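Table S2 (text version). Query chain:
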Amino acid sequence: TTALAIARRQGSRRRPPQFQRQDAEDLIALIFPDQLACLENIQGEREIPDHPLVRQALRDCLDEVMDADGLERLLKGLESGAVQVSGRDLPGPSPLAEAVINAKPYAFLDDGEAEERRTRAISTRSAAWAEAAVPNVFDAAVVAAVRDQIRPAPRDA
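Corresponding structure-token output:
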């Protein structure tokens, strides 16, 4: 819908980019009137405008990209106890931590050298999450007892 807000063609001819840019600036000024005001003249909190393009942008960000409703359900589940969190001691980072570790330098707000050293210092294993999915909770004696019970006992050869 945002692509339809600015006319790209005028009749059968394509509109020049400078006119499209001017129309885009006019549209932004129409949607966000505070943008034209001097910052010294703006008092109090800024309000989110009630405009279809703003609503669409908020919906795209909160629902499609960040899944805010899913995050809210997860937080409520954690608070009520329906969702349990458990820690695992693994030889490598989890997939989420691996994505953070291997992020490009511009993904961090601190200086570039620090995160590059951290990335090189940690060795990653892509299958480490599989070890976390199956916890080792059975005692070896219990496993041996069950194995002896289910093992066939042939009487003759």
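Notes on Table S2: The chain has seven helices and two strands. Residues 48-82 form one domain.
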